[in-house]
Each structure stands twice: as C-alpha cells, then as structure tokens.
Amino acid sequence: MKTWTVIELVEWTTKFFESFGILSARLDAELLLSHVLKKDRLQLYLDFDMPVFHPHLSTFRTLIKTRSNRVPISYIISSREFMSLSFYVDERVLIPRPETEILVETVLGSQKTPCHILEIGTGSGAIAISLAVNQPTWEITATDISTAAIDVAKHNTKQHQCEEQITFVTGDLFEPVTELDTLKYDWIISNPPYIGTKDINTLTTDVKDNEPEVALFAGYSGLDIIQRLIDETPAFLKKEGKLMLEIGHNQSQQVQDLISSNPAYKSYSIIPDLSGIDRFILATARN
Length: 287
Ligand code: SAM
Ligand code: GLN
Fold this sequence. Notes:
A hairpin with a 5-residue loop joins strand 10 (265-272) and strand 11. The chain is built from twelve helices and eleven strands. By secondary structure, the protein is of the alpha/beta class.
C-alpha cells in the first residue's frame, strides 16, 4: 500500500477540493491536515516529507469528505483567527469575517481613554474579546438574542482571560440592557444580521446551509435590525457617543438616509472594507 507524505496529501486534497469548486482549496487542505496532525501550519511546512499513517489518515479522509459537503473549514476545525487571536467556533455562531476587523481597528484607533462599550449581537465574542484584550481598562457589555451564542462567547472569554472586562446579557437588542446599571455608553457597536431573505440565493452553500439563520438574515430587505439599531441607539449613548455598524454591500445609501434623517445624530462617515465597498457607518450622537 502507498505511504502518503504530508506534501502529497496537501496536493491531492487541494486538487480534490478544487474539483468541488472550493475557492480556498490549498489553505483548507493545509488547515485540515494541521488540525488532524495537531501541528500549526508552519510546522506542517517543515514536515512536508513526513509520512502520515493510520489513524491520522482515516480521520483526515473523513474530514475531507465533510469539507467537500461544504461544511465551513472553521466549523470542522472548531477554530478561527480574528485580530491575530484564535477563537473557538461551532455551528452555534457566525464565523467571524476578516472585514469585521476594520470595526475593531477603528474603535481601537479612535478611543484612547477608558470607556464603556456596548456590543449588540456578539456571536462568538470575537469583537468584544479583541477589544478587551487590546485595551485592558475598557469595560464591555455584550449581548445576543441567542443563548447558544452567548455560551460560545463566554467560553472564548475564558480562553482569553478577560471575564472581568465583559458582561454578557441575552435578549432582543437593547431589551436586556435596560436592566443593567450602565445605561449610557461611549460606543455602541454591532455587526448585525443584514442579509435580506430576498438575497438568500446569492449566498454560498457554505454560508446558507451551515451558519445560524439568526446571525445572517434581517427581514426581506436585510435592513430590519440596522433600522432598529439606528432608531434605538441614541437613548443609550452618552453625549457625542458613537455608533458603529457593519452594513451590507448594497445598503450604504439607505443607511445614510436613515442616519441623516434622524436628528439625534450630529454627523456620520462611511468606511469602506478592503475591497473598497462601503461596509461600515460611524455616527456621532448629538446629546
Ligand atoms: N459579532 C459577531 C461577529 O462579528 O462575528 C457575530 C455577528 S452575526 C452577523 C449577528 C449576531 O447578532 C448573531 O450572533 C445573532 O444571534 C445576533 N442577533 C440577531 N438578532 C438579534 C437581536 N434581535 N438582538 C440581539 N442579537 C441579535
Ligand atoms: N458578511 C457576512 C456574509 O456575507 C454576513 C454577516 C452579516 O450578516 N452581518 O456572509
């Protein structure tokens, strides 16, 4: 029987994934084999000629099949990098996206003093935890409507040792916040669900069939949650406090209209993602 080496497995699996139309075929092959062999990717490169035997080989074969059925690689390996930190993820939470790092970087770049932040819809906790890790004096309240997601976020908070900085509450948007001592925040931030059910067929199978619906969809047009956030936020912001939201690729004009027609906001700017698409709105409250 043939003995497979690391490099041969990576190359074979890359071609196999490509034949299924998986775009990140090589990366996924490497991440999967690293996971099975419990090595990081750099170590995999150093061990390219190492033979791989049973039981690693049979585990690898099973996971290749799972990936070819379009289960996202991050769910298979239960891990995703965000802001250079490693987060536990599973089907209970959205997989953090690279563009969302811009939201975290913008807050870190604009706010230099201790502050109180409210994150709505924390999912895996990636945003709240990366802010806490980078700014140990900041206090963060993080919410989600999904108790299952909050369980994942709490697990990640423990992993990153920032339990004392983050308070978790469960419920619909601001509803659970009204019971807390802090009622006014310096920042309110969210990467809310913003995909319209009308656009469901533009999503890849990876996303559509695997990620939580409650994390993706917000009504027919996708604006339902964004609209409520824009309406309800001012009551919870300090004077000149800031709202920053991630938005869908085709929502910039509608979101600008919602903010500019609301007298509770003094000014706003639009921030693009790395592809140049309008992806965030940053608004300042008047009072
Ligand atoms: N913050 C995470 C991130 O950026 O990776 C997750 C963002 S995901 C797009 C949106 C999150 O909002 C999900 O975790 C979902 O459960 C939560 N959510 C959806 N509707 C909500 C609501 N009405 N109130 C609070 N959270 C909600
Ligand atoms: N950006 C994600 C996607 O395109 C969706 C995340 C969201 O709705 N906030 O799949």
